[in-house]
Amino acid sequence: MNRVSRTIEAVVLGCVLAVSAGAQIPAVSSDQVRRLSASGFDHFYSLEYDDAVRIFERLRDADPANPYAHHRVALAYFYKQLHVAGVLEGDLFGASNKFFRTRKISVDPVLDRNFHQSSQTAIRLCEGRLKRNKADQPALYACGAAYATKAAYQGLIARALLDSMGSARKANDFHTRLIRLNAKYYDAYMVPGLFDFALGSLPGPLKVVLYLVGMSGEKERGMGLVESVARWGNGARYDAQILLTVMYRREKRFADARETLETLASAFPRNYVFPLEIASIHRAADETEDAIAGYEAVLARVRQSTPGYQDVPLARVHFELGDLYRKQGDLDSARRHLAQVAGSRSATPDLEKESLLLLEQIDEAIRLRQSVEAAAELGR
User: Is residue 297 part of a domain?
Assistant: First the structure.
């Protein structure tokens, strides 16, 4: 059951990280709208959610009948909620991220209300358009995207995993219908790809049960669909690249995950999560020296006041470096970093407790080393 739960959690997290913006800009948009949309998404992918909200609300007010305009606003409020809660701190897919081990996050009621208002409006508008025209391709895409984000919210904020899976299935159905109408609408392949990968990752007995109720999936096929979005997609290309890092890491394709993240880090240099994830992947691949270099580079950017790095979760970075240096045998460097966890940005009681435990182990190891050195000196 734990394995099933972890797989479902990975699906939800994948929705959060990847089934997101998809900058669908109508072909008839003016140059000003295109520039404004591009600016909004640059802020969005750079973790600057207040600026993204401001721009997306301006676009919504200029086109209130467009369901996707409301979806983008909902999305920005959702991500701001995650950011405030400390979810987007890096190491999102690794074992040291304890987000799923907690119950519910403390929800900001204003952000929660704004998300639900925009999400419900997006769904109402796109479903209304589909009642008038079942072949309305932009409405099909908007409905799929809105339900995907709703699934992520239900899973991560409300912790209602069954409701989340229900919304995810609706998202999959809308985008599958769209693909049948237009096989070249590549952005629409991402949700079915995620769904395919997730169902294909479940334990065998559960896959059999789901097959009997008409649900099946294959990991490789799902990954291939998402790769097609990353290659040929329009607005969802970056989202597909983010999702691929989740898939590659779960499949231990660390080099592919790192290469994809490096592309994203280059495109959005103000987003500190991408370099943190690159360091985390080096750590998962047992490339200790590269992992240390990656985390140290993030700290260097903080010291240099690099734009976007003012919110780096320093406590987590110091903890990871302390643990890595400890495993490498550099106990002095390990101690120096672990001693900085308490009181640093993003420090939590659990992280401080773990740091103290490691410090005690290191101090004991240092005392043992000193005793051995003293004994060796006496024996000369």
Answer: no
Q: Which domain holds residue 140?
A: 1-251
SS3 339: coil
1 falls in which pLDDT band (50, 70, 90)?
very low
Find tokens 């470096």 and name the residue.
321
Separation of alpha carbons 165 and 8, rounded Å: 8
For the chain, counts of helices (H) and of strands (E): 17, 0
Whether the CB-CB separation of 83 and 49 falls below 8 Å is answered with yes
Q: Which residues contact 380 (CB under 8 A, 6 or more apart)?
A: none
> In which element (H, E) is residue 251 found?
none
Calculate what percentage of the chain has a pLDDT beyond 90: 63
Number of domains in the chain: 1
Q: Of 334, 380, 322, 342, nearest to 96 (Cα)?
A: 322
Which CATH number is 174's domain given? 1.25.40
Residues in the chain, total:
380
DSSP assignment of 4-15: HHHHHHHHHHHH
Query: Considering the domain boundaries, does residue 379 fall inside one?
Result: no
Question: Is residue 177 in some structural domain?
Answer: yes
Q: At what angle do helices 190-200 and 161-181 cross, to 10 degrees?
A: 130
d(CA 72, CA 52): 9
**In a domain? residue 345:** no
